[in-house]
Queue: 2 jobs
Job 1
Amino acid sequence: MLFYISLICFIMLTMTKYYYIYNYIQIFGAFTCFICSGISYILLLITNSYEKRKENTFDIESMKGLDYGTSMAYSYYYGYLRIILPSTGSINKGLIEKIENIEDNHGIYISVHKLFILIPSSSYIPPNLKEASYHWMESAMNLEKEVLNRAGVKGRTYHNSVYKIYPNGLRLETPFYIVVEGATPLLTFHEVQKHAHNETNVYKKYCKCIIQKFYKKLKQLIDADPECADLCELIYYNDYDNNGTKVNVAKVILDRIFKIQNITGENAYNIFT
């Protein structure tokens, strides 16, 4: 649009009856046209770039909670985390009591008494986290089941998995025990993108924005809930590096453990070497 405006202005100038302007254009007309066209093209690129960035964020932000990411966060929080994390004061145990029981029953020490939830930027979470850790991790056991009657389903069960992490993948070293899992709504979101639904292309286009909205809203919900705030650790991360190589999720988890436990960089380095 700016290019055409500049072109029209140039034509009008060349047709003017004023002698000096006419002579100026005769001498410098081609050069002036070239400069105007170049400036117009640059401004057009800048405008398109701005509009594209605005489109990528505005459509989701303007939905005021009606977007896919926010909806997933609410569903996951009320339909799962609020059920398995806090102690209800009834026969159902909270996460801390389940962790303490499994430590006593199996003679192990779980590094951090929280549920670690993985939120990869690609939305893909393998069935076994061993696959995403270059075999640094392996499933150890499950926490006690939570059994509830919910939405007409009698005896619906919920449980969490305990994993062992071997630094550097060496089985000779003492492993870290951790309660960890992927955010299951993201796997569903990933599977939706694999099929040719009407919304598939839109979800693919805004995939990272949707996942970020999911993470931000979920963190907001957990942080605002005193019964859950200290029981859950969200880990949002890029599961592929700049070279397209799969990131070792075990290292990502260990980095977070070290941060929580205030392990110094030197001590952390010793664990990896």
Job 2
Amino acid sequence: MMTFFCSICQQADNSVEKQLGKRQLTVKSSGSHSWYIEVQRVMFKYNLGRAMDMLDNADVTKTIVNQIKRQIANHWVNEISVIANLYQGLKYLQTDNFMAGRIHNILKIKRYTNKDRFRIPIKLKLLTGTYSLQPLRYKIYKEGNQEICNACSQEVETVEHLLVKCKAWDNIRRPVIKEIENILTNNSKIEWESLNEGTKIQILMDITMVQRQLHLNSEEVSKLNTRQNVSYSLYTAPDVNSYFNHS
């Protein structure tokens, strides 16, 4: 919308589009469905000034257009960063340093393999709180014992329970954790068992959030990213595949 409006602003003063815009901005009320009034509402929302002033400005350059785009992008980056903190399901997702128009750091995998095509959707579901755990499965399909994990029948099935607590999946989880532990110990002298539960889960989910805390360089993060496949291992293991068939 704003790009098109800027192109109108760059036209001659006697152009039909510019004359129409000035007339509608003058005679139409703020509640009008006029396209130009909608442009004005957008400009007010993003603190871009008045639409009429831009129409009167014959020098709407590409630089100004790019500034408008950046201001809108920055608005949403800040908005998302604030809102994300209010959602429990996003607590393991890094939302402080992303940029509009660029992929999230969690998807920047240097050692990309064919399996990553299947791992990434599962990981994104876990990171965004949309993975189908037992409370949701029971609500939709009436399966199992309400919120209790069907695999171990011990605790409520949460992301934390699935990734690090559930004893039923220890044999699947252990090899993956061992690989991660070796990388941390060999490269950064960090003992896996010395980490608290929250940090362990964060490493498995989105290590970029604890990269500085653990003093990890980009190469170590890249190695760990290729090993963060606990959820994928659980999801695809032959003996538990049917358990997750609604995830």
